[in-house]
Write a structure and sequence with these properties.
Structural class: alpha/beta
Largest sheet: 8 strands, mixed
Distance between the termini: 24 Å
Number of strands: 13
Radius of gyration: 23 Å
Number of helices: 19
Helix content: 25-40%
Shape: elongated
Length: 462
């Protein structure tokens, strides 16, 4: 019953204004995002069902938010799974609730549950077309074993995608290997893996494709010392650890104690070692501290407007004001300049989940002008279709992502390299792409991979 109580607590926190859904879900020990977001989406319908069935009048001790969660899972979700008195209570009223649902459908002249939702409650167009991306955690398993696992669960593997259009056409229980990232599997939109064994055991990470780009493009070699400057919730940190093969050192910073504690649990579950978490504002970190004297790579994903995030629940926030954008951009310029002051730094990735030029190209341009010839933009990932806005010469070296063009969240990525004496050799591809050819290229389901991995990974049994 603890799962439903935790979901109800998140709904109550949203009502009180304690934070956004992602923050409140993140602070819970349960995988709640799908349950909470769908309960929210169906909230107007659930309120009508509760009123029509007079459930709260009949069960005066049942909290309203808990009632919503229970009725959502009973009628629209996967069915009540947990035991306890609340489950028994909900099932006692099942016939009345189902009758009320049928009456509501007749009243609104619809046949499907989804059609009960008003346009305002329906998922945004972006959310409805963005696939479910699943990153294989190579610290605990390998792509072949994960593909085999999903095939045993009844999914049909279609091989490596050849185009974004193939990703767009996914439906049912079919999945592909991504055409750009070698350890990313792609499933149809809205596929839910929060309760799947591979997710709960840390063998796979549910991470949007655009969010995988920063660590992939940073591409530190095994043994490197790396800073993840604004680390929580930790998906990018775990991705860095996988690229490093747990060889080297990751210094991860965040100012929120609860987020760091949860991140520590997540990284441990993912099998990450060789990391140090610090509750510290990255701007207060001393680049001259001997502890960071070997830091050659920095991943910088600072606070931003979040305007590129595609919500699977209704989005009511207003667009950021010009003053808010300028304040964010000022902070972003400051933190990027600070990151470039680490003495041994060779390569840095700056990324945001923002669509605004003020937080993206304008920040990179200002800091490059300030830094003179010490750093330069790298034309990383030339095959990526969406490039930076023409805000300054060379801005096309930056990457952009969007639901319409790349079937991802909106994102911006710039790769900077130290230029001049002692700099790393120029590269037009991330080290990860150069050292690790994409898995399964040219193969389809059932075909043997081109070469065997030398190290046997931990298998997952159903």
């Amino acid at each position: 019953m603890a799962l439903y109580s935790a979901a109800a607590a998140v709904l109550e926190g949203l009502e009180r204004g304690d934070g956004g859904i992602k923050t409140l879900v993140y602070n819970s020990r349960f995988p709640l995002y799908a349950l909470v977001s769908e309960t929210l989406r169906y909230s107007p319908v659930l309120e009508k069902l509760l009123a029509g069935a007079a459930l709260l009048r009949a069960e005066k001790k049942l909290p309203p938010q808990l009632a919503k969660v229970l009725v959502y899972d009973l009628l629209f979700g996967k069915g009540l799974k947990c035991g306890g008195r609340w489950k028994a209570l909900a099932r006692r009223h099942r016939a009345r609730l189902e009758a009320e649902l049928a009456r509501l459908k007749v009243q609104q002249k619809v046949s499907r549950n989804e059609e009960l939702l008003a346009p305002a409650q329906a998922a945004s167009p972006g959310a409805s077309q963005v696939p479910r991306y699943v990153r294989v955690n190579t610290l605990k398993t390998c792509v072949d074993d994960v593909i085999d696992f999903f095939k045993r669960q009844g999914y049909s593997y279609l091989g490596k995608a050849a185009s974004v259009e193939e990703l767009r056409a996914l439906s049912g229980k079919k999945f592909l290997l991504d055409l750009h990232l070698p350890e990313l599997l792609v499933f149809p939109p809205q596929t839910d893996f929060h309760d799947n064994l591979l997710y709960t055991s840390g063998h796979v990470i549910l991470q949007d494709k655009a969010s995988c780009l920063p660590a992939f493009l940073l591409g530190p070699a095994a043994g490197s010392h790396v800073i993840d400057a604004c680390a929580a919730p930790g998906n990018k940190t775990s991705h860095l650890a996988a690229i490093l093969k747990n060889k080297g050192q990751i210094f991860a910073f965040d100012v929120d104690t609860k987020r760091l504690a949860t991140m520590n649990t997540m990284l441990t579950r993912a099998g990450v070692t060789g990391f140090q978490l610090a509750q510290q504002d990255f701007l207060t970190v001393d680049p001259g501290d001997p502890k960071y004297s070997k830091v050659t790579h920095i991943l910088l994903d600072p606070s931003c407007s979040g305007s590129g995030m595609v919500n699977r629940v209704p989005r009511e926030e207003a667009a950021p004001s010009a003053e808010r954008l300028q304040a964010l951009a000022g902070f972003q310029r400051k933190v990027l300049s600070h990151a470039l002051s680490f003495p041994a730094l060779r390569r840095l990735v700056y990324s945001t989940c923002s669509l605004h030029r003020e937080e993206n190209e304008d920040v990179v341009r200002a800091v490059l002008q300030e830094r003179g010839s010490a750093f330069r933009l790298v034309n990383a990932f030339p095959s990526w279709p969406c490039r930076g806005l023409a805000a300054f010469p060379g801005a096309e070296s930056c990457l952009r992502a969007s639901p319409a063009d790349t079937l991802t969240h909106g994102f911006f990525v710039a790769v900077l390299e130290r230029h001049g004496e002692g700099a790393a050799a120029p590269s037009s591809l991330p080290a990860a792409a150069e050292e690790n050819p994409q898995h399964g290229e040219g193969t389809k389901a059932g075909a043997a991979p081109k070469k065997k991995r030398r190290r046997k990974k931990q298998r997952v049994k159903e």
